[in-house]
Amino acid sequence: MNRKWNCLVFMASLLMASGAVSLANQDVGFLFTSAPRFEPSAWSQGGARFPRGSVVYRAERGTAKPLVPELLTSADPFISFDGRRVLVSGRLPGGDRDQIWEVSLENGRIRLVTSGGGDCVRPLYLPDGRIAYTRVDRGGTAIEVTGEGPGPTRITYTPDRHITADILNDGRILFEIALSSGDGHRRRVMTVFPDGSGVASLGGAKERPWLEPVQAADGSVVFLDRKRAVNLLDLRTEAVRRLPGLPGLVFGPFASLTENRAFVSMLVAGRGQAKLFYWDGQSAEPVELQQPTGAWAVQPMPLIPRLRPKDHPSSLLPNRKEALVLFYPVDSRDHRSKAARVRAWTWEPSSGVSQLGVLPLQPDGSLYAAVDPDRPLRFEVLDASGRTIQRQEHWIWFRPGEQRICVGCDVGTNVAPINRLPMALQSGRPSRFRDDDVPTGKSVIPR
Amino acid sequence: MRIAICIIPLISIASDLWAADAPHRLCTPEHLALSSNGGLLYVSCSDADEVLAIDTASHNVRWSIRAGRRPMGIAVDHRSGYIYVANSWDDSVSEIDPSGPRQLRKIPVGWEPHGVVLDDRHNVIYTANRLSGTVSAIDLKSGLLAHELTVGPGTSYVFRSPGSRWLYATKIYPDPHEFGAPPRNSLAVVDTLTQTIHHTHSLPDSGAMFLGSVADGLVVAPVVRPKNLLPVGKADQGSMFVNGIAILREGTREGLVLPLDSPGGGTAQPFQTVFHKPTGRIFVSASGTDEVAVVDVRRLVRETRSVRSASLSDDLSLANRYIQWRIPAGRQPRAMAVGVKFLYVANRLDDTISVIDIAVLRERAFIRLTPERPIPPARRGERHFHDASFSRGRQFSCSSCHIDGLSDGLTWDLAPDGFGLDYVATPTMETLSGSAPYKWNGSVPTLEFECGTLAEKYFFRSEGFRGTVLDDVVAFLKSIPPRPNRHRPSDGNLTRIQLRGKLLFERKTDNNGRPILTTLQCPTCHFGPALTDKKRQDVGTRSSRDRSSFFDNPALINLAYKVTYLHDGSAESLHALWLKHNPDDLHGVTSDLTLPDIDALVEYLKTL
């Protein structure tokens, strides 16, 4: 990544940022990333978000100073659940790759977390102390988890570009994908468990492009729409409401302190860069914090402990190499009379997209299959003549030993499955996708 | 603001009970009822075996009185002011004059009464009896049983609208059904004129039903829709349960179930509904998610009139249309009583009553029923056992299947390795102590492993019971006492037929005088305090869905109270065990037994 970064010049332009935000009669310090240029969506097309470098600052008690002076560049601060450590991505002077670093807030000591090729960005703490991050290299992107075993564990397997966003309170990793079939502008919000299983669209996020999601203090997911307005997704009801009172373009992540208070990075009219604001839902206007001129101030992160999310108990079966998948479409009553088969596609870096095979659906729409793990898969439902009825929008994958029930590709999450013994389970044995007996009807080959 | 009002006990019994050096005694409020003028709130305390009367103005205890064992439902006679309390372990109803207070009579009813309701027009009290599966109609004047109406296993609650001819009875167990068929439950409609069951209203795809209410011709009862025929491989999106309410038009056979759950979160274990006519609302206590859902009746009715389809009951997007609000409550809010201005909610595992201001839908105060003291581990464990927040999507807790620590009467595909294999009937928890190893195949050595590692991996799909939380859950499970066995004669002397059955159980030769192999004699596998050798055995009960022929030899304590038998629940009765499921005499030698022999054997087994 080509970065032209004159740290000294930028440092000189930095004014003291105020850490004078009061919460419950206590000043709350915060971290933020300061950069001369910020391209928030560049990752979706393989570009750098901070093309001229960046520095994470710690603003506290009226002063702001670099959090990790040892690093030439730093970004993506993420505080530990106990509020004592921070993860950042960054590189040492002379380094050519971003790695993940852990910084003690008590003594400033730093620890290198990652190694290897590519840039490692957007780190997150997992509830069990492990760390997830996105590795970006020429081959694409992958989310990895480190802290267990000799090396990192890759948990995503898709040609789509993606980037870690947050860890949800229920233990799922929240991430964004830019669909590989488009120009990088078609983005979706997904979740995956830390063992790489259970990848799925975030409830209600299937149809709409939601940007820079993060979980708020009240449990809802805050995301930005295309106009960079802040919206809240209630995870319980999947209701979405726009947050009023923010008069500019917001750049995520939105850093909520309490239900109605947050640090937010916002670009207001007449300004060249987004600045940090303290927003209190009770007051009329967000309050701008003192901060550098001539630079973007983004990625605010309050210096307070956060709720430890629930740990995810991996249910991957250790002795199984393949994954078992039960297709049991909940909303296929309309399709059921027409749906006859399911076609599976896969993708490999060398050969691109190829058909994995076709399996017949049982009369109740069910299908029980064993599939190879850790490879991109995409399914489509075919009618008897081989015509595509329904097609999955993005790639998914299964992990070895994963047992997954798919209730329909890209369907809403609002319908619970009907309680019937799936016909596909009556034999007790899973089928395998085969590439013979391929129907000849018209099909859309996913790119 | 939450205002704690500690009860100042006004009578000596209560003072003794709560003395500082007294052993920790819990109340565990089960049911509530308001006096005629709303001035007193009656609370049945199942762990203290007593009934409290709380002054609704001062929130102090006016009096307490000892009832029978494990008092449950309460009904008030608004003419005399007398209260009637169902004593679930005494199989009786206490008639209490609150002016004393004093207990006037103890009226015998069916086995394990939970719900009680009064028909003051005909001077009859009705009880719903869980173990006998009946509704008892008791003539109030004589205290004698007028009719015993058979409803079905697990009959637990009765309710009616004052003045209405109809009375409704619900069951926690589904109707008996073939293995593999979707469960259905039915609500019995009792005609109070004739004291007969007029008809039953069948609800397809339904499991446990709880305590409902009637107003303006609408019958609304909590119901869960289990997904037991699908593998337990997914915990969210209603893939294990949809918690809902059954809505029926009184006097008709029209009805449907609407969900209380939302796409991303459950309203787990709904227990009771109450109407508040002035505001047109129904309150639904959600005992697994510690809240009260506030349902707008007008909007609810609108949904019932919309286009009906098979998927309406499973459409989780509907709930937000009629649930106006969710009021946080204490731990395991179950019973409720509604006055004009206030809703009273019994937080069963907090020993508190939440007083909710209906105008603002907020808790105004809470009433402590026992002094604040360290909570015993078993009680802490009981809280976790009923807490749906351990499961993904908060849709269920342990007690969603193990209702009241018992069973749901269903068979599930637990999917430990592969789908469509090893279907298992939900076991009861009341006989766990001393019966290790666990699970249908005896593969789990300890409750810690089952409730910790396995439960979170394969049920909750989220961080479950760990550390001290797990210890507490296990302490609770080991503390669940078996219910009194009504089949066992109280004097300890078996009846003639039971003795005959005992001889058959212990016999060493068959009816033809041929010796029975030791391995096929009942006491070889079933002996000791729990009547199990704690080993696995092939008794010829493997089905095509089972991966192994060997199953855990189960404990036989309170065998009579099980809903189904065998590891997969495929035997619907003890008789069926011997008449249908032992063709090759691998499960003991029974092919030589006559029908009267089988009857005798079953009668003996019921006493265990």
Detailed description of the structure:
The complex is a heterodimer of chains A (447) and B (608). Chain A has 447 residues and is an all-beta fold. Helices cover 2% and strands 40% of the residues of chain A. Chain A contains two helices and 33 strands. Chain A is globular. Chain B is built from eleven helices and 33 strands. In chain B, helix 6 (447-460) crosses helix 7 (467-479). With 608 residues, chain B is of the alpha+beta class. In chain B, strands 1-29-28-27-26 form a five-stranded mixed beta sheet, with no helix packed on it. Chain B has a four-stranded antiparallel beta sheet with strand order 2-3-4-5, with no helix packed on it. In chain B, strands 6-7-8-9 form a four-stranded antiparallel beta sheet, with no helix packed on it. At the A-B interface, strand 33 of A face helix 6 of B.
Give the structure's gist in a few sentences:
Chain A is mainly β and about 450 residues long.
Structural shape of chain A? globular
Shape of chain B: globular
* Tally of alpha and pi helices of chain B: 11
The average pLDDT score of chain A comes to 85
Biggest sheet overview of chain A: 4 strands, antiparallel
Low-pLDDT runs of 5+ residues of chain B are 1-22
Radius of gyration of chain A: 23 Å
Number of strands of chain B: 33
The main sheet of chain B comes to: 5 strands, mixed
- What is the mean pLDDT of chain B? 92
End-to-end distance of chain A: 27 Å
Counting DSSP E segments of at least 2 residues, the number of strands of chain A comes to 33
Query: How much of the sequence of chain B is in beta strands?
Result: 25-35%
> Helicity level of chain B, as a percent range?
10-25%
| Most extensive interface between two protein chains, with residue counts | A-B, 48 and 51 residues
* Side-by-side strand order of the widest sheet of chain A: 5-4-3-26
Structural class category of chain A: mainly beta
